[in-house]
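Quick one: co-fold with iron/sulfur cluster.
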Amino acid sequence: MIKISLVKCGEYSKAYHSVNEAVELIGGIDSFIRPGEKILIKPNLLSPKEPDKAVTTHPEIVKAVIKLVKKAEAVPVVGDSPGGAIRNIQTVWEKTGMLEVCRKENVELINFEAAGSREFDINDANVRKVNFSNAVLNCDGIINLAKLKTHSLMSFSAGVKNLYGCIPGITKVEYHKLASKNTDFADLLANIYDFLKHKIRFTLIDGILAMQGAGPSGGEVRKMDLIAASQDTAALDAFLLDVLKQDISKNLVLNSLNITKERLDKIELIGTNPRCFNFKNFKFPPLRRLDYIPKHIVRFIGSFLWVKAKINKKLCRKCMLCLKSCPVGAIKQKGKDSCPAVKESKCISCFCCHEFCPYKAVNFHKSFLAKIFIKEN
Ligand code: SF4
Ligand code: SF4
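Sure, here it is.
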């Protein structure tokens, strides 16, 4: 059986107690880590946002895991490669609270870009070789500290998606170009997970404050009071999707990993009863309703069913992060002082710009048919 622990925790100030309980329930820290090992704690540090915005893993969760790793007499290090902050890692560390936690705990905070990287063939059909940060390759094991969030392209961002941050810097954007269809990108995420999973000691999900709606950065904060942990990252994602009332057979990443509903029958739930959490009416990205349109209809009307990125000039602060994030060069700035604009004919609807924009200034422009199928919440 696959053990998944659930613990109710209403406040980050009580995170240590709850994180410790969640890990104890699946076997205890000493069963995952040996003394002297170098353990990479991998939070989700998507962009420079304060912890209460629910975009990034909360620093109290990171602190709790640092303390557990130290208790096991191993050596914790913390790192991630924030997609939306390729050139301002210091700001990400400060705003997300990582710098303060790591300084107080006297733990190394690793810049994945500066650590160097190596390429591997991970049997992906679209990306011939995938570059991984040496911080990931050189550690003995990884503790995957994901945030419970929605994702406009992939529907859901939890344990498996968090590992995309193991690829350093701008290379992530390049891979979006090579795996531009969402099915191809799902395959890439699944292959990255398969490549790294032997290193993952366990995955712990920070769902005390989760994000619903247009995640992973532009959604709404939703208080869920949830901490969940398992050694099986993909099964944990499948379980969470299931309790959030999503059909896991429609999830592209789980499909790619051949995880079907039968896997849910192999789960042994430990800890707080799922009925004690408010999983009801969790909002998924409206765009993903397109995944539920039958394939024969999509074949017939597919070219009239599109969603493209559009920049809201009133909200745009001209930081140009979207322009740098676009894998196909569909975003251009016409004049020196003007807002960037999307050339729709070039846009491949990867929504990297939506993910990277710190000011929620990237919206979705839908075709007439897409508007019929996608009603906003
Ligand atoms: S749309 Fe967002 S990311 Fe792009 S320039 Fe404007 S504020 Fe920056
Ligand atoms: S404009 Fe945005 S959604 Fe379109 S291809 Fe570029 S990054 Fe992707």
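If it helps, The chain has a mean pLDDT of 92.
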